[in-house]
Structure formats: C-alpha cells, structure tokens
Model the fold of this input.
Amino acid sequence: MWNRQDEPQFHAAARRDEAIVIMAPLLSGVMTGRWDLSNADEFRTKYAGHWWFKEHDMDKTLQAMDCMRKRFGDSQQGFLSAILRYCLGLPGVVSVLPGFSTLEQVESLAAAVDAPPLSAEEMAFIRETLREDLTLLKR
Done:
C-alpha cells in the first residue's frame, strides 16, 4: 500500500501494457491486529531491527492502524476487508494476493470480495491515514 504510483517501474509497465505483482507483507502482524498500542513495547523490542521500522516511526504506524480500526471496526472482518478493498480500488490494481495465518483472516478476506467498493471518502481516509510518512494522522 505504500508503493508510490509515480515510480518509474509503474510507468514502464503501463507503456508496455504489463502488470506488476508487488509483495506487500502485512507489516509483521501490524495490519492483522496482532500488534497494537496495548503491546507496543513488546512490538518495538521484537522488530527494532526490521527494515520498515528502521525507516518509519513504529508508534505512528501503530497509531495509523488504531485509526483504521476505529473507522472500519476492530474485528478483522471490518479492518482487513477495508484494507483489501482499498488495494483493489487503486488505479491499475487488478488483483491482490493477501496473506493470512488464521481462519478468521481467511473469512475476513473472502467476505471482502462481495463487499461494495469503498467510497471516495473512505479511500481518501485510508490513503491519508496510511501514507508513507505517517506524519499527519487523522485523530
């Protein structure tokens, strides 16, 4: 979700009418709800050396996920469904290959298939909440 659509590889693929498959892991469990503000100290200790968190503020990432849960629901049904529908709603995205580790995650992702697309306002909310620098989180 943090890939910038203005990067050269996207333009090159578009000129050749090709698709790109992007690996976008679920941030070591942050996006599945495994980690949140309640266990942030344990999270920081475990992932202090992780490439993403060397470049990004771990607390702001957790705050962004908290904003997502407040908006779309704390259950994985609402939260993961919104994330999947966001990815599918981006221009040029034709498929998403999500990961999962629990039956609840599988059911949540499967339910998103039949859910209506996100509104323009919901897309904007997610884009602003999860944007790369995470400096202006909606409160």
The radius of gyration is 15 Å.
